[in-house]
Amino acid sequence: MWNCEADVVVVGYGGAGATAALTAAAAGARVLVLEKNPEGGGNTRYSGGTMRTYTDVEKAVDHIEALCDGTTERDVVRAFVNESRRNSEWVASLGGELVSMAAALGTHFPRSLPGAAFPSVRGADGLGPRVRVKGPGTAGGIDLWGVLSRNVAGTNIEVRCSSPVNRILMDKDLGVTGVVAASGGSNIKIRARRAVILTCGGYEYDRNMQRNYVGHSYYGMCNPGNTGDGVRLAADIGADLWHMNAVAATWGYKFPEFEFAIRQFMPSAGYIYVDQTGKRFMDETGTDAHIMWAPSSFVDTATLQRTRMPSYVIFDEDTRLRGAVAATFFGKVSDVYQWSADNSSEIKKGWITAADTIADLAPQIKMRANHLQATISNYNLLCVGGYDPQFGRAPDNCVPIARPPYYAMEMQPSLFNTQGGPKRNASAQVLDVRGNPIKRLYSAGELGSLWHRNYPGAGNVSEALAFGRIAGRNAAGENPVIS
Ligand SMILES: Cc1cc2nc3c(=O)[nH]c(=O)nc-3n(C[C@H](O)[C@H](O)[C@H](O)COP(=O)(O)OP(=O)(O)OC[C@H]3O[C@@H](n4cnc5c(N)ncnc54)[C@H](O)[C@@H]3O)c2cc1C
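That is the input. Now the predicted structure with flavin-adenine dinucleotide docked in place:
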């Protein structure tokens, strides 16, 4: 007995879900979107909204295939690149506009590089500039979620919030026939006459899954609703999983006041990272923001301690005065908190530790003063020589830490998003463990993303839109069945 029905049922109302719903509805399907949270937006609403453009399909396919270490089939990558090239036209059809990213981000650290994040990998010259949906000026001028949600509101798509899906229903001959969702304290059965599309995000807020799949846990900088439900829903009916060990992660600050971590964003190169023993461990300014999970995953093989979790950023008065050391100016975080331009509010709150000397700063972060002092003296010396033999930090980015007071902040590895989930093919169909499509089940977005560990940034939003449209079209094109 079904409680209600639609042609296409979309699970999760973020960027991929909104895109799939709009596309299926435009193809004539009756669409019902089920969202777990009281409101939609998901990780997409926290996002920088940056998308990659591709100028040469075959080169771009070569490039992404290489970044994915052969884990993603070439036809899947090609489908993604070809469909992504329509993002601009599609966003325009919704009344939005894709504009080239200001080079401004390139002057902050850790960088999201304006060009290719991996310029030496084959096919990098097939990538174009990064773009994003132009906004009204607030929220960093990013209006991706605004454009999507306003368009959904203007259609007959039904969106039911506070309705987490907890099961996918299968018939052995017909395939997927519907879902079970919690609604007002009870479970309801919803029939999908044509198909179900899973767009329910990753496992940014399931620390056990992270430890199990990636090897350690992270804080989320994103939507607390993303707890890996899609992985469990798909595994429950025999889907193959891929890219479970892949995440896009950078350094963030975690304060008890907020459930999410706040992204680090340094206004000048006058800073270093040190581990709990006071040692530097990477080129702080030359590593793309999205792959900073890699240095943080270090384990001391003698003690099994993770001495880089947390790590600390150390900077001086000059850097403090150059601008906020965090990014709270876009997405949903900007509705909740605005970081002060000179960091003075955060010093007052005790989020930033301050001291007149390094010797006084070190014990406040439980570090031996002579260790931290030696690291900073060495770093300041290499700034004079313009040569960082150990980590290869670029000479222009070697800016001394010399003017008191000195500052320290604890940093934690923090997630933009996870990539793992049910494996999909070029038609956005979810595959079973034998490589066959599970009938009438599609997916899009970061749940079961095509990206693997060498994630270059600006790929997940493009994927949410590209595979959202592929899934929406194909789901609407399924023959209706009565189960
Ligand atoms: C600070 C930050 C900046 C970022 N910047 C960029 C960027 O510039 N470019 C880029 O490409 N990527 C960026 N990302 C990553 C990108 O935003 C996401 O990967 C992408 O938006 C995911 O879209 P999605 O639709 O797949 O998932 P989401 O937008 O997360 O939507 C999933 C939805 O499913 C819901 N859901 C979960 N479980 C259930 C359930 N059981 N039933 C029903 N609903 C459920 C969730 O509540 C959520 O609303 C950034 C991320 C962060 C945090």
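The two ends are 10 Å apart (CA to CA).
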